[in-house]
Amino acid sequence: MTSYDQQNNTVELTLQREDLRMKTKYAIVFICIVALVIIEKESNILSRVSDRLIQRQMPQQQDFSNITQKGSLMALKMLLSRLSGTKRDSSNYSEEEEEEQLDDSGTYSYAGGHKHVLLLATTRTGSSFVGEFFNQHGENMFYLFEPLWHVERMLTPAAEANNGTVLSGIYRDVLQGLFLCDFSPLEKFISPSPQDHVTPSLFRRESSLSLCEERVCSPVIRDVFERYHCKSRRCGPLNLTLASESCLSKQHHAIKTVRVHQLDTLQPLVEDPRLDIKVIQLVRDPRAILASRMVAFSSKYHTWKAWAQNGQVPEDDEEVKRLKGNCDHIRMSAEVGLSQPHWLRNRYMLVRYEDIALYPMQKAEEMYKFAGIPFSSLAREWILRNTQTTQKASGIYSTQKNSSEQAEKWRFTIPFTLAQVVQRVCGPTMKLFGYRFVNDEMTLTNKSISLLEERLFN
Ligand SMILES: *[C@@H]1O[C@H](CO)[C@@H](O)[C@H](O)[C@H]1NC(C)=O
Ligand SMILES: *[C@@H]1O[C@H](CO)[C@@H](O)[C@H](O)[C@H]1NC(C)=O
Ligand SMILES: *[C@@H]1O[C@H](CO)[C@@H](O)[C@H](O)[C@H]1NC(C)=O
Ligand SMILES: *[C@@H]1O[C@H](CO)[C@@H](O)[C@H](O)[C@H]1NC(C)=O
Ligand SMILES: *[C@@H]1O[C@H](CO)[C@@H](O)[C@H](O)[C@H]1NC(C)=O
Question: End of a domain among 51, 75, 101?
């Protein structure tokens, strides 16, 4: 044999081996597809059986398809890892890992593909804006804006005497009702009381697109003195029965609230198997929050203004204590979320206002992905319209300000003395979220110095 022949032979052999390898690969892929089909069929049967079982056992309509789908996916994963045999030998598939996987499946709920987003924030953190990311999703979304306002207004005096424990339990129960499209727990707190489940006084009804749809609009009966409750159309008082029907018909539900102060009080809600809750906590630089509140709630913050003028801030003052309390609550909630306790695994996301201002679209996409809801073109368009400076035909930029610039405005409105107070009182909170301290006024107002550390939280 010439070396040429040998070479040729080697090439031939290699080709044959390659061929064999390809065939094996195809065989494995084929087996997987067959397995997937079988599993899919089985899961269909399983879900039909479980549906029947569930209907017998539980009053609420529930759907196990989520679980069985997850189950089949897991089975497929295990099958694949066994077939390929490269990454993981089945004999070395540790019990711990299996436990981990089973554990994971345990966190899947019976919500039947419905997603429930709870947007937790405090005032002046841009929560109305972020709420719109979900409100604008489209016809598959039922969004509520601050429904707990009614509860707080009715119960705060009593709750203060009660150290807040009772109030947080009621907040939780009302949220649970609303996520299940049951308005009756909330109705007890609406004042004046709804008549036959109809009310003209739902707080900020017009902030929920789904409460202003044609189908929930009862006719405007009375005269011109009747207030209209929706921007886009003339709507009579809200019929909560219709609202509940509309809610039930929608795939996804989102509620924004600035009234829940401690994340751990929500554990029973998050663990409710009928719901698939995702909590998004929205935070912001506490110095910016104070600056913004001093502008927005000017009369309430006159003490701070006086302090800023005479440079003396009594740290034992009630106002300062309240600021500290707020910061501590926010930090403690975030610590609970970030520590990923079992009940919150894959259910908690921390988002900073400043990151949303810098990358609104990217952050919105991340939130949707986290929530397990497909990002919609309607939401995308709304964000585009409301974040970018719009270029007019003439080529001149409009006066609409760019959101990352807006996010830094506070640095020029907060007196340095007050920034220092916030840093002292809210230090641990600022550190946790990556907000840089400033030691002099020059740094505070020098825009080329960023006060934001880059952080990944989840
Ligand atoms: C699994 O097998 C690999 C390689 O054989 C080894 O490095 C690894 O330590 C094993 N893992 C366990 C959990 O036994
Ligand atoms: C609030 O009061 C309840 C009983 O009234 C008590 O069990 C609880 O420990 C108190 N919580 C705090 C934070 O003081
Ligand atoms: C509210 O809507 C429900 C469901 O359509 C209807 O039965 C009820 O009569 C309405 N209530 C009023 C006061 O119009
Ligand atoms: C918004 O303002 C920031 C800071 O001034 C700047 O870096 C960014 O390019 C601006 N974005 C747009 C879209 O104008
Ligand atoms: C702002 O900070 C930058 C970077 O530290 C520095 O170069 C610049 O001189 C500062 N500007 C003023 C006005 O202090």
Answer: 101
**pLDDT digit string (tens) for 285-330?**
999 999 988 888 888 888 898 888 887 888 888 889 999 999 999 9
120 and 188 both lie in a single domain: yes
Going through 266-368 in order, the beta strands assigned E by DSSP cover: 277-283, 348-352
Ligand 4 neighbours (beta carbon < 6 A): 388-389, 402, 404-405
With the most atoms of ligand 5 within 8 angstroms of its CB, the residue from 446, 447, 449 to mutate is: 446
**Residue 387 lies in domain:** 115-295+338-402
Q: Between the CA of residue 340 and those of 107, 120, 263, 392, 454, what are the distances in Å?
A: 13, 17, 12, 47, 21
pLDDT in tens, 109-142: 578 889 999 999 998 899 999 999 999 999 999 9
Nearest ligand for residue 354 CA: 4
Distance from residue 293's CA to the centre of ligand 3 (Å): 41
Pocket of ligand 3 (CB under 6 A): 196, 198, 218, 239, 241-242
264 in the same domain as 233:
yes
Give how far Cα 47 sits from Cα of 38, 76, 155, 292, 427, Å.
Answer: 14, 17, 44, 52, 51
Residue 321, in any domain of the structure: no
291 and 159 fall within a common domain? yes
Are 140 and 190 contained in the same domain?
yes
Residue 150 and residue 86 in one domain: no
Model pTM score? 0.73
Q: How far is the CA of 429 from the centre of ligand 1 (A)?
A: 41
For residue 293, report the distance from its CA to the centre of ligand 2, in Å: 30
